[in-house]
Design goal:
366 residues, alpha+beta, Rossmann fold, OB fold (Dihydrolipoamide Acetyltransferase, E2P), six-stranded mixed sheet, five-stranded antiparallel sheet, 20 strands, globular
């Protein structure tokens, strides 16, 4: 007989919360095992932070159940107070106590004798590389250092679950990636189940083992970052992770006419209006027609002519906008390094058909 798997560290079942007749959280369910980082990702107002508040216990759901290690902490008959849930909280403003030293801030939520507290504080200060700031006060630290103190304080009581609400949004953009990586390494080392709320796709992609994409109070797609990026459930999901180009058309005999020739669109009834979505990095300039570069490969399809509207250098790449001859559609191509053709320059473009997504147009029948 195989060993029985332990229950998820955190499990949410059919969670619902209504404000003024509007379902802000609508039938939300998910589970997080120990050691996993799950990101609730979505635009402002989609219900992410409300979900976090319900799990923390600072708000109460109208429907659904919340379990920690298989035991109910909030359902129709049980509502465990926030301080008894063994759940750590970390918010974007860090909320450090200005009158306490770094060590005192970290020790604030600890119980037990003084020696055990001191040992745990020292352990965490070493992990976040702030041992020399033990007796400093928060106002004397940089934003990144304050963030690391807040993380150490949240982890000090060894919570089974850590809830993080936009924890990096107050940091200088240049620091964020390093701080995220350091935070992720420490969370994995502590084997904490983490629910991170963010509206930034880059943050979710960098941090998460699993992403829950939320919209209008519902989870519309879930999975590993790679799967959400490469197999979006709809046009809005694709556009949330990056800029997209959209070719519009109507299906006839399982084909849709585009500037790049007939496009196979099986599975859609004749007359269905569809969106063919492609990211700028998969729109290719046919340099071969200008006497440069390799010949197009079969998956690139039929070249189409466009005229440069404008071009901008973005640091690692250039973004070139074209107005297509076929129907006046504006398409954007991402080109590595510096490529700044003058406005009015005609060029030929191709698309990676194997990198396109086909969805019913908004408002059309699925």
């Amino acid at each position: 007989m195989s060993a029985q798997l332990p229950p998820p560290r955190l499990e949410v079942r059919a969670l619902g919360r209504v404000f003024d007749g509007l379902a802000v959280v609508d039938d939300v369910s998910f589970a997080i095992p120990a050691g996993q980082v799950t990101c609730l990702l979505g635009p402002s107002g989609c219900g992410k932070s409300t979900t976090l508040r319900l799990i923390a216990g600072v708000d109460t759901q109208d429907a659904g159940e919340i379990y920690v290690d298989g035991a109910a902490i909030s359902d129709g008959s049980v509502h465990v107070p926030p301080e008894q849930r063994a759940i750590g909280l970390m918010f974007q403003d860090f909320a450090l106590f200005p009158h306490l030293t770094v060590a005192e801030n970290i020790a604030f939520g600890l119980k037990g004798d003084a020696a055990a507290k001191r040992a745990r504080v020292t352990e965490l200060l070493e992990k976040v590389r702030l041992l020399r700031h033990r007796d400093s006060y928060p106002h004397g630290l940089s934003g990144g250092e304050q963030q690391r103190v807040a993380l150490a304080r949240a982890l000090a009581p060894r919570p089974r679950i850590l809830l993080m609400d936009e924890p990096f949004s107050g940091l200088d953009e240049r620091l964020r990636d390093d701080i995220r990586d350091e935070t992720l390494a420490l969370l994995k080392e502590e084997n904490t189940a983490v629910l991170l709320v963010t509206h930034e796709p880059h943050e979710a992609m960098r941090m998460a083992d699993e992403i829950l994409l939320m919209r209008g109070g519902k989870i519309v797609q879930r999975g590993a970052p790679y799967n959400l990026y490469n197999a979006p459930v709809d046009r809005a999901a694709a556009a949330f992770f990056s800029d997209v180009n959209v070719l519009k058309g109507r299906v006839k005999d399982a084909l849709t006419v585009t500037p790049f020739g007939d496009f196979l669109t099986p599975g859609h009834a004749d007359g269905t209006e569809i969106d063919i979505v492609i990211r700028p990095q998969h729109l290719k300039i046919d340099f071969d027609r200008a006497g440069r570069g390799p010949s197009p490969t079969p998956q690139d399809g039929t070249p189409a002519r466009g005229v440069v509207e404008r071009a901008r250098f973005l640091g690692r790449e250039s973004l070139v906008e074209f107005r297509m001859d076929f129907d006046g559609t504006i398409l954007r191509a991402s080109v590595p390094n510096v490529f700044l053709p003058k406005p009015g320059t005609p060029m030929w473009l191709m698309i990676r058909r194997d990198r396109c997504f086909v969805f019913p147009a908004k408002g059309a029948d699925a």
